[in-house]
Specification:
Elements lengths: L1 H19 L4 E5 L7 E3 L2 E5 L7 E6 L5 E8 L9 E4 L4 E6 L6 E11 L4 E5 L10 E6 L5 H22 L1
Parallel strand pairs: 1-6, 2-4
Antiparallel strand pairs: 1-9, 3-10, 4-9, 5-8, 5-10, 7-8
């Protein structure tokens, strides 16, 4: 029994240590900055000379954002990408699109309202220095994504009906 406890404690410490390591990440959150860059539905930004940076923006698109997709360059060195947000209910990492290494999708309410300020936090490093990121608010996924989602929902409904008989 003590061996299991020791193993569980070791795994917990390893997990926490992995989360604390500096690596490529993107965090979208509310700023406390007196100035920001106005942006529309599509905008780009760059990492700093160290491969990180914190940038302040204002949504001046005229509409509320219900999602924000950030198309990322290659991390340097290559490492798992993480994301966090307090503006959206969730974030997740997708395979890259349009020549980008990965896509970080921020989705769900409350989103970013028109006129709201927000930060894009790239950390202190982990990205390629002076690399360009592209962002698209209210992004609609590719049609193939909808087909996969519909197929998954249909199979879940069919499976449930089979088990209810």
């Amino acid at each position: 029994m003590r061996l299991w406890r020791a193993l569980l404690l070791t795994l917990m410490v390893a997990f926490c240590a992995a989360r604390l390591q500096a690596g490529p990440h993107i965090i979208i959150h509310d700023p406390q900055a007196p100035f920001s860059t106005p942006v529309g539905l599509n905008f780009s930004f760059m990492s700093d000379n160290s491969g990180g940076g914190v940038l302040a923006f204002t949504n001046t698109s005229g509409v509320n954002w219900f999602n924000l997709y950030v198309f990322t360059p290659l991390p340097s060195p290559i490492a798992p990408i993480t994301c966090e947000t307090d503006n959206f209910s969730s974030c997740f990492i997708l395979a890259g699109q349009g020549g980008f290494f990965a896509t970080v999708a921020f989705t769900g309410k409350p989103g970013i309202m028109n006129g709201d300020l927000f930060f894009v936090d790239l950390g202190t490093g982990g990205w390629t220095p002076n690399a360009t990121f592209e962002a698209e608010a209210n992004h609609l996924p590719e049609p193939g994504t909808f087909v996969l989602l519909a197929g998954g929902i249909a199979s879940a409904i069919a499976r449930r009906k089979l088990f209810l008989r």
